[in-house]
């Protein structure tokens, strides 16, 4: 293992292997401790029907249930939010995820009218349409906005689904799905997330399906692995300290370096991280 791989593993807190029961317990405890310390009423999270929000949502609901059982008279809440852009191709998976999570409350907000309005005002101002790729980021930021509106309304904090296989590539929208109050999955690789879902008894199709950001109108359900040009197995192997193809490793390290700005607070005159 070279020095870069080791330093990335350390920065992203990854481990070669995890014990499912122990990880579930640790992450539930974090969600419980953080909520009590914050004084908030509960949590909010967008449920897409994909692996990450199914896992983060389930851990959150379990934490909320435990708090309400341990502290009689309390009524902490988890607000699961369905956030389709018009009609969602894998709508059934989103419904299955909600069914598995059994959230305290479920809301559905169609983000399409807001995204369309943004695209139209952009075009009116600039005189050219926003690209399909950039509109994808608008969708992610609109979802963030809805979650923060609900969070503020109900006095709840916003959960993020960032984990280490996503953090290393910076494969998320800055201040979109990257914006949140806490990230209970951080430190896990994609396959370790699957391992936890298996332990939690999640429907198998929710963690065996191809991960997708599903942000582009022109490429619905585009698999992350296709967009990234590398597989989650390769990313996970790297993060778990294994040797991977040197060309892929170099591309991964380049992505990591180029996306450092997403893992830091906005740079100020006292910061030096951006000089590396
Ligand atoms: N060096 C630097 N220092 C400080 N800021 C810097 C910067 N370079 C760019 N930036 C800023 O960052 C912006 C680009 O970042 P960003 O807006 O995130 O955009 P970008 O990284 O170009 O695109 C987001 C990528 O994440 C993927 N994604 C998004 C959402 C969810 C998922 C998923 O897996 O579910 C995946 C999406 O498919 C796309 O490939 C620039 O417009 C600029 O404002
Ligand atoms: N259609 C959607 N409805 C609700 N929330 C969404 C939707 N799309 C994205 N999100 C939110 O944005 C987050 C980031 O999306 P991402 O694709 O990385 O995760 P995922 O869909 O949960 O899992 P996977 O990586 O397996 O697709 C999701 O975890 C979810 O909270
Ligand atoms: Mg997804």
UniProtKB/TrEMBL annotation:
<keyword id="KW-0479">Metal-binding</keyword>
<comment type="function">
    <text>Catalyzes the ATP-dependent amidation of deamido-NAD to form NAD. Uses ammonia as a nitrogen source.</text>
</comment>
<feature type="binding site" description="in other chain">
    <location>
        <begin position="261"/>
        <end position="262"/>
    </location>
    <ligand>
        <name>deamido-NAD(+)</name>
    </ligand>
</feature>
<dbReference type="GO" id="GO:0008795">
    <property type="term" value="F:NAD+ synthase activity"/>
</dbReference>
<keyword id="KW-0067">ATP-binding</keyword>
<keyword id="KW-0520">NAD</keyword>
<dbReference type="Pfam" id="PF02540">
    <property type="entry name" value="NAD_synthase"/>
</dbReference>
<dbReference type="InterPro" id="IPR022310">
    <property type="entry name" value="NAD/GMP_synthase"/>
</dbReference>
<feature type="binding site">
    <location>
        <begin position="46"/>
        <end position="53"/>
    </location>
    <ligand>
        <name>ATP</name>
    </ligand>
</feature>
<feature type="binding site">
    <location>
        <position position="161"/>
    </location>
    <ligand>
        <name>ATP</name>
    </ligand>
</feature>
<feature type="binding site" description="in other chain">
    <location>
        <position position="174"/>
    </location>
    <ligand>
        <name>deamido-NAD(+)</name>
    </ligand>
</feature>
<dbReference type="InterPro" id="IPR022926">
    <property type="entry name" value="NH(3)-dep_NAD(+)_synth"/>
</dbReference>
<feature type="binding site">
    <location>
        <position position="181"/>
    </location>
    <ligand>
        <name>deamido-NAD(+)</name>
    </ligand>
</feature>
<feature type="domain" description="NAD/GMP synthase">
    <location>
        <begin position="24"/>
        <end position="266"/>
    </location>
</feature>
<comment type="subunit">
    <text>Homodimer.</text>
</comment>
<protein>
    <recommendedName>
        <fullName>NH(3)-dependent NAD(+) synthetase</fullName>
        <ecNumber>6.3.1.5</ecNumber>
    </recommendedName>
</protein>
<feature type="binding site">
    <location>
        <position position="166"/>
    </location>
    <ligand>
        <name>Mg(2+)</name>
    </ligand>
</feature>
<keyword id="KW-0460">Magnesium</keyword>
<dbReference type="InterPro" id="IPR014729">
    <property type="entry name" value="Rossmann-like_a/b/a_fold"/>
</dbReference>
<feature type="binding site">
    <location>
        <position position="190"/>
    </location>
    <ligand>
        <name>ATP</name>
    </ligand>
</feature>
<comment type="similarity">
    <text>Belongs to the NAD synthetase family.</text>
</comment>
<keyword id="KW-0547">Nucleotide-binding</keyword>
<dbReference type="InterPro" id="IPR003694">
    <property type="entry name" value="NAD_synthase"/>
</dbReference>
<feature type="binding site">
    <location>
        <position position="212"/>
    </location>
    <ligand>
        <name>ATP</name>
    </ligand>
</feature>
<keyword id="KW-0436">Ligase</keyword>
<comment type="pathway">
    <text>Cofactor biosynthesis; NAD(+) biosynthesis; NAD(+) from deamido-NAD(+) (ammonia route): step 1/1.</text>
</comment>
<feature type="binding site" description="in other chain">
    <location>
        <position position="141"/>
    </location>
    <ligand>
        <name>deamido-NAD(+)</name>
    </ligand>
</feature>
<feature type="binding site">
    <location>
        <position position="52"/>
    </location>
    <ligand>
        <name>Mg(2+)</name>
    </ligand>
</feature>
């Amino acid at each position: 293992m070279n020095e870069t791989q080791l330093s990335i593993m350390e920065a992203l807190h990854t481990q070669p292997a995890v014990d499912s029961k122990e990880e579930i317990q640790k992450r539930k405890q974090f969600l419980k401790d953080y909520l009590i310390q914050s004084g908030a009423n509960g949590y909010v999270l967008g449920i897409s029907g994909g692996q990450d929000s199914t896992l983060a949502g389930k851990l959150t609901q379990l934490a909320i249930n435990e708090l309400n059982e341990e502290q009689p008279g309390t009524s902490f809440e988890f607000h699961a939010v369905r956030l389709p852009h018009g009609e969602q191709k894998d709508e059934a998976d989103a419904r299955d995820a909600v069914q598995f999570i059994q959230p305290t409350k479920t809301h559905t907000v169609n983000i399409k009218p807001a995204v369309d309005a943004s695209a139209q005002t952009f075009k009116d101002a600039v005189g050219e349409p926003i690209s399909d790729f950039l509109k994808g980021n608008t969708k992610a930021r609109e979802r963030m906005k809805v979650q923060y509106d609900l969070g503020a309304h109900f006095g709840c904090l916003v959960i993020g689904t960032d984990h280490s296989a996503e953090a290393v590539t910076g494969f998320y929208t800055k201040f979109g799905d990257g914006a949140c109050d806490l990230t209970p999955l951080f430190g896990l690789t994609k396959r370790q997330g699957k391992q936890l879902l298996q332990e939690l008894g999640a429907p198998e199709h929710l963690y065996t399906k191809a991960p997708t950001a599903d942000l582009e109108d022109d490429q619905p359900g585009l698999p992350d692995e296709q967009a990234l040009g590398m597989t989650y197995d390769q990313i996970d192997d790297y993060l778990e300290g294994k040797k991977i193809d040197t060309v892929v490793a170099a591309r991964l390290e380049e992505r990591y370096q180029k996306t450092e700005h997403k893992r830091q607070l906005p740079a100020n005159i006292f910061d030096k991280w951006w000089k590396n």
